[in-house]
Amino acid sequence: WHNQRRKRINEIQERSLILHNHPEYAQQPCIPIELPSGSCMFASKEVLRSIGGFDEGTFLYFEENILYKKLSRRGFQNYCIPDIHAVHLGAESTRNTSSLFLQHCMIDSANHYLRVYGEMTFRQKVVWAATRIGWGMTFFIKEHILKKRYL
To answer: What is the pTM of this model?
Structure first.
C-alpha cells in the first residue's frame, strides 16, 4: 500500500512540474492537462455557463477541482499554454485572515467536494469521516478550551 501511495505521489509531482521536467513541451502551443492551477485559469463565459459556473458550496478552496470535474464530465479538456506567464503573489487573499478560519474553510470545501464530486470507496469514506472528527475535536479545543485558558 505504501509503495502504491509513494508511486502515486511521484506521478502527481511529475505532472505538476511538467514544463520543468519536459522543456520540449514549452515549444508546443498548448499541452493537454488534467487540473489547472486556480491561480491562473481562463475560460469563456459560454463554457462556464454550460457547466453551471462555480459551485457555491465552496469558499477559497477546491474551486478548480470542482471546475475540473464539471468540465471533464461534459467532455471538455484543460490545456496549459506555455507562452502565457502569470505571477501568483501567493496568499494575498488570506494574508490577514486567521489560520483557524482558513482551516475551517478548507475542511468545509474539501467535505463538499468529496461529498458531491468525489468517487470514494467505502473505506475512503470511513477514513475521511474519522479525519473530519479529529479536525473537529482540534478546532473545539483551540476555540473553546485554549482561548479560555489564555484570556
So the answer is: 0.71
